[in-house]
Every structure is written in structure tokens, then in C-alpha cells.
Amino acid sequence: MEEELRFLETALPEDWAAYPRSLFEAFAAHARMLRDTAPWCAALSREAYEQYVLCPRVNDEDLSEHRELFYSQLWDRVKDLDQEDAALEVNRWCHEQASYQAQDDRTASPLTVYRCGSGRCGEESSFLVAALRSVGLPARQVYAP
After folding, report:
1. CA 117 to chain CA mean position, Å
2. Angle at 115 (CA atoms; ends 104, 83), nearest 5 degrees
3. For residue 53, what pLDDT is reported?
């Protein structure tokens, strides 16, 4: 877990200063557990694992400890699937949990989108990325005009 913490401190220095160490410890421990147990996560290169599973930052959302919650709701749905089907199942779960709704200008965290059941398009995208990462599926946000 120390390697994960070093990566987070180096990659996210402003976040490291703004949030409690315990939050990053939770992200690191969860990611390490996934690296050790999720077959698709274990097969990732170190760079892909760090950037697209371990890293809690998706966009400019507030960081929140949501991975354990999302994992607890998703793992039984995806654990016996191949990577592609697992990603589709996570997408289905996200669709069940939240729908599009225009909101204020502040970007909501994935946990807020989950609790409110709605979000703007970028927030829904961040929600999906966070949910995929919570089960060890590498993901990032991509925008298209």
C-alpha cells in the first residue's frame, strides 16, 4: 500500500494537502485489494493501474470515499464476468442509480450523484468512471464535441 500512497502524493499534491491522509489511505487500500483479487485489475500495467484504477481524481469533483459503497453493490454483479461484460454491467447499475438532470454549476462528486440519483452529463460520466474503478476496471473520462 505504500507504493499506492507515494503515487497519490506525487500525482495529486494539491489534493494531498486539501484532504485528510485517511481518505488517501482508503483509496490505496481499496485499490491494492482490487489489484490482488480482481483478475482484470491484476493484469493491468503499473501505469494503467495507477492512472485508471488507483487514482481517485476523475475531473474537478470533490473527492469522497465512495469506492467501498459502490464495490459492495457491484462486486456480486461483476465478479464472474469477463472485463467487457463487467463494464457493461457497471454501466447498467449506474443507469439504475442516476439519470440526467441539469443542476447548479458546481461539479458533484460520484457519491453525491449516487445519493441524489441525478447529475449533469459530466457528473454522470465521472460517476461511471468512479464505479468502474471501484471494481478494478480501468476507466477515464473522455469528451467529444
Report:
1. 17
2. 105
3. 98
